Amino acid sequence: MTIIPAPMRVAYLVNQYPAVSHTFIRREIEALERLGMSVTRIALRGWDIPLIDEGDIAERQRTRYVLKGGAGALAWALIRASFRVPGRLVAACRAAWQMSRDSERSLFVHLVYVAEACIIANWLDDEGVLHLHAHFATNPAEVAMLTHIVGGKPYSFTAHGSDIMDRPAQVGLQHTVSRAAFAVAVCSYGRGQIFKWLPHCLWGRVHVVRCGLQPGYGSEVPTAGAVRRLVCVGRLSKEKGQLLLVEAAAKVALSSNEPFEVVLVGDGPMRDQIQLLVSRYGIENRVRITGWLDAAGVQRELMAATALVVPSLSEGLPVVIMEAMASRRPVIAPYLAGIPELVRHSETGWLYPASDADRLAEVMSLCLNLSNAELREMGEAACRDVWSMHDVDIEVGKLRELMFAPAIDTNRADRAESSR
What is the edge-to-edge ordering of all strands in the sheet holding 228-233? Predict the structure, then answer.
């Protein structure tokens, strides 16, 4: 067993934190703290965004914001690093240049990441942080890598779904993984997507640590109403596929006179287009948009639902699927990415080919026509499955072991680059 130093202080780095869609990160941090670790929260931005969840509001008070000090703080951090660690600063700038070559963002932006890394490196030293962990394989992973180069602290990062479908992030994975103590994917499919961009010698650094639910989640008594209700939770955006869901709902409404409701929990840039399509199909009495809800509000909607429906066109493994299954609700979702690793067709929900509105409508009808007893049986099976795979305390225990496993030589890549 790994011997873990005490007190253990780690830092978490996220692009924007807290956020309504980042509750899973908060759960992970809280689980680490239950294990006796001290966690410094660091975000690049997010100090001024509207928040509705009381937990997020409290979390913001605990978070340090890199860009809050403006350009002056970034410039001062660079000047300070140029005197204290000039060689490391040059190495970080070179790494930023490498990352910029295949990026859609200019070299200037990547050099700003170097300045951000200088600020973070100072904070880690001031607070005695032993390890930096970033969420998402995009700019947070790059900034964590640059922080390691400037300050020497080991780092790791978690890649999710859409962040490793973006080509600039993909082509940068060889750099961010090679210097990391380890990298994490939230499902086996995600790990496979990372493998595609790495030489075989780096595969061993990529581990699967699944997102998890806190103890007691979904333990309330189900409260589904008489009218069958399908709930979709997520940002109203192209990749989340709510337009496809509206098309499928219109097909179901045409083929059946039985009452049902589709509830869209969330908000976003596609809201007007979704409402326009609902009006075009004349199903205003079938589709309702709630806007953003806090975590308790999302859980209430899941508990009042017949099932969760996921119409996504691009995904990793959505946390809301875990939340629905823990709430004893079957799940309708596409054969996509990591979803089939959790949802079993006709046992804990229904899987359909992504983007196929006809098949989505078909499985929606199957769900809506099941008896209450059959729905309860599927919901109980879903609950058993999700807790066997997505208990946050178990998954975070794996993460902690990785953080404090015997150190690997993460400076090897830096030395290899400097020798060229």
Answer: 287-291, 260-265, 228-233, 307-309, 331-334, 349-352
* Residue 416, pLDDT above cutoff 60: no
- The H helix count followed by the E strand count for the chain is 16, 13
Within this chain, do residues 181 and 285 fall inside the same structural domain, yes or no?
no
Q: Give the length of the chain.
A: 420
Mean pLDDT over the full length of the chain: 92
Q: What is the pLDDT of residues 335-350, one digit of tens each?
A: 999 999 999 999 999 9
Host domain of residue 46: 9-214+393-418
> Within 165-270, where are the H helices?
167-179, 188-195, 242-255
Q: Is residue 223 part of a domain?
A: no
The b/e string for 202-236 (b: 16+ C-beta within 10 A; e otherwise) is beebbbbbbbbbbeebbeeeeebeeebbbbbbbbb
- One domain, residues 197 and 285: no
Considering the domain architecture, whether residues 142 and 258 belong to the same structural domain is answered as no
Q: What is the pTM of this model?
A: 0.91
Query: What's the total number of domains in the chain?
Result: 2
- Name residue, tokens 């709630």: 290
Q: For residue range 134-170, what is the model confidence (pLDDT) as tens digits?
A: 999 999 999 999 999 999 999 999 999 777 776 666 7
CATH number of the domain bearing residue 155: 3.40.50.2000
Cα separations in angstroms, 25 against 32, 43, 133, 219, 346: 11, 12, 11, 21, 31
72 lies in the same domain as 181: yes
